[in-house]
Amino acid sequence: MKTKAEVPIEKAAPILKLLGDKTRLTMVALLAEGECCVCEFTEIFNMSQPSISQHLRKLRDAGAVLEERRGQWVFYSLNKENELYPLVESLISQLPSQKEKLEDLERSGNRIVWCGTRR
Predict the structure, then answer these.
(1) How many CB atoms lie within 10 A of CB 16?
(2) Residue 20 maps to which CATH number?
(3) Cβ count near 60 (within 10 Å)
(4) pLDDT surpasses 80 at 1
């Protein structure tokens, strides 16, 4: 008997494949701590903006993340409305917190603050 929390294998496999990439898995874990801007990811991963954007595009196309443009910045957040979010959330709960990476970014002055506050 199927329970509400079950995800069909056909739907779980593609998102798990996406999250099988260390960079994307880390991105999702970072987003569990709060929204991030592309430029913050480039700093954290020491990767080019096009490479970061490609990873984020794959996550966005799968419905795992949302993007929101604010002026010159594009911010990403977890899509908690996606039907696969409970699966993603349960996976993230098994990972170490990535909060320290964001705190390091803030200490170095590279954390983007929008209108004086973060959502």
Answers:
(1) 15
(2) 1.10.10.10
(3) 15
(4) no
- Residue holding tokens 């996976």? 91
Q: Note the pTM of the prediction, 2 decimals.
A: 0.87
Q: In angstroms, rounded to a whole number, what is the distance separating the alpha carbons of residues 54 and 33?
A: 21
Please report whether residue 4 resides in a domain.
no
Question: Phi/psi of residue 115, each to 5°?
Answer: 50, 35
61-94 per-position pLDDT tens digit: 999 999 999 888 899 999 999 999 999 999 999 9
Q: What single DSSP character describes residue 96?
A: P
Return the ∠ at Cα 60 (arms to 39 and 16), rounded to 5°: 110
Q: How confident is the model at residue 49 (pLDDT cuts 50, 70, 90)?
A: very high
- Answer yes or no: is 3 within a domain: no
| Domain extent for 14 | 9-118
Give me the number of domains the chain comprises: 1
Strands (E), the chain: 36-37, 65-70, 73-78
